[in-house]
Amino acid sequence: MASIGxxxxxxRMGQAIAAVIPELGATLAGGADAGENSEGIARxxxxxxxxxxxxxxxxxxAAARATATPILIGTTGLSRAQHALIDQAAxxxxxxxxxxxxxxxxxxxxxxxxxxxxxGSDWDIEIVEMHHRxxxxxxxxxxxxxxxxxxxxxxxxxxxxxxxxxxGLVGARAQGTIGFAALRGGRVxxxxxxxxxxEGERIELGHRADDRAIFARGAVKAAQWLVQQAPGRYxxxxxxxx
Length: 242
Known about the structure:
The chain is of the alpha/beta class. It is built from 9 helices and 11 strands. Strands 2-1-3-4-5-11 form a 6-stranded parallel sheet, sandwiched between helices. The protein has a 5-stranded mixed sheet with strand order 7-8-6-9-10.
């Protein structure tokens, strides 16, 4: 029975995770929020989950490394430097970083990768996402994760082909690019759609989240899986055995 510690315990995801932990056969080791002792909770937990803020992630990784505690990072809006830090930490501890802990989104990501690989550059790829009005980062971590999947299928780096938002006289769409559009409003938990547009036909792959609990359950299941792994950097694909 894994004991799970939560960074960002008082946030929406932190509260949702704490609520589903008992039903999934785990225990709550406690939580920490901004300004609290990161290492204390790391010492009490078998595994950590981080749904805090990007500015706090460095300290949480440091605490996980200091205590040799596996950590799942679901916080979005991470910088390149933080991704490099995750790579370094993964040499010492099991670490799973993801923009979305939904098992359905993990499968969607695999489908997007395979579609991009098989359809080729003649098909334009656009990613549209919508979230509640309070979300502070855009595109969403999930949208970027889907973009990374598409770019991997195309055999390119997302940073080289991403087009985030369009306004004004931007010219014709460049072949091989991946477009992103972000919508914000109401209490939308999370909608994502990946559009493959070809000559005279379209393929649309999507996922709609109606309940935040799906992310919480996925996070707990992933944390339970992670605690049994060797040091390394993992994704939700590995949790599903994809």
